[in-house]
Amino acid sequence: MDVIFLIVLLILSVVIHEVCHGYAAEALGDPTARYAGRLTLNPIAHIDPIGSVIVPFILAIIPPHVVFGWAKPVPVNPYNLKNQKWGEALVAAAGPGANLAIAIIFGLAVRFNGAFVVMSPSFITIAASLVFINLLLAIFNLMPIPPLDGSKVLFAFLPYRFAGARQWVERYSLVLFLVLILFLWQFVSPVIAFLFKFVTGIAL
Asked: Can 18 be counted among the known catalytic residues?
């Protein structure tokens, strides 16, 4: 598939990811994202020049041609959230949750193609690409390393006595992030491949 088209699919996926963060925050009492003009599907409001364009383009043209990137984070003020215990975790989970929903919907379309409606090969290619991109975004963002969403979900479950551990993880988040990318991602990639086949019925 054309590199530019893959980047467009990625941008749409990360925009939905961020918008869902914003709507979840507003539902829980924090209107910061709305005031910042981020509750919109207009990509211009969310695009990060490096994470949404440059990095995905470079990754797409270099083998193994894995398209990945990010948008500008939606601003959230955790002190405005009604539920101070679980609010931040729920807001954080909304983004990966949206990506998983997209992956499941289009994955089922691929799996049951021909059973109810016969879809064109071009649509199946687009749907499969959306499944992979959104699974990648969901799994990556659920990694429990700041500032990824998974860290906020994890911290919500930690008892207060582990506050020191949270501070340590946040202090060394850059180092932990690099360890994830350079050494641990090879163990995560098979999980994405398994989920892709589980949802679509075809091998990645």
From this structure: yes
